[in-house]
Amino acid sequence: MSYIRAVEIVYGDSNDSIGGQDINKGFGGEYVYLVPKYVVQRKFAACGFSLHTSYVEDLNANDISRGDGKELYRYIHSHYKPGGPRGGKAVGDVWLSEEQEGQGCTDDLNKDRGGRLLYLCWNYRD
User: What is the pTM of this model?
Assistant: First the structure.
């Protein structure tokens, strides 16, 4: 059994991406894909993800809206807190959706830039 450790932001082409979707499509800029990173040991799994927007570029993270010409930078953060507020739950599956579904979702990845609603969603695995 495997769990999701993180979601990597990849520029260019990616055959391993979630749903094969360029999440920056229609905004200009780079082709941006989300690629799940797996781990076998539950204790290293993520317990959730969040969207962070900033007017300041984070040089240690990959911007999911890279090259779109807008002022905001967008980052997806993985959270780890076994035994924490989420009861030590471990993420088992992730997908992109235009609706909030599953056992958890980020905020709209396109928030404040128009375009379709797009969420990173997940389910937990025991």
Answer: 0.90
* Each residue's pLDDT tens digit, 39-87: 998 889 999 999 999 999 999 999 999 999 899 999 999 999 755 445 5
* Distance in angstroms (rounded) separating the CA atoms of residues 112 and 5: 28
φ/ψ bin of 35: left (φ > 0), alpha (ψ from -120 to 50), beta (otherwise): beta
Q: How far apart are CA 15 and CA 40, in angstroms?
A: 22
**CA dist list (Å): 10 to 55, 61, 76, 80, 97:** 21, 11, 12, 21, 19
Q: Which residues make beta-bridge pairs with 109?
A: none
Whether 92 and 123 have beta carbons less than 8 Å apart is answered as: yes
* Amino acid type, 76: I
Tokens 């128009």 found at = 114
Question: With b meaning 16 or more CB within 10 Å and e meaning fewer, what string describes 86-117?
Answer: beebbbbbbbbeeeeebebbbebbbeeeeeee
